[in-house]
Amino acid sequence: MHQSGYAMELLKKFEMHKCTPAKTPVEVGLSLEKELEEGAINPIVYRQVVGSLRYIYNTRSDLNFSVGLINRYMQTSRHSHLNAAKSILHYLQGTHCFGIIFPKVNQRLH
To answer: Which domain holds residue 68?
Structure first.
């Protein structure tokens, strides 16, 4: 089970379909903070990105930590938070066909 089609639509929606794929969803040791001296960003776009990623991570356990991390900043989103979300989209570009495999079982249930 995978959501490759949805992942590609997501990348197109946020104009990331031609981005360079990344090997990891977020930088190792990434630390985000609520109260930053950065300027605020458009919270609607940030919430759309995070909401879309929250939908896809149900079949992508490799995204759970990173999406959970950016999800914490829905109310106080800043440029560094959006950059972390875009980093996840870069990772999704290279792994859009990943998903969950359910093995075929040939045993009868009694």
So the answer is: 4-22+40-95
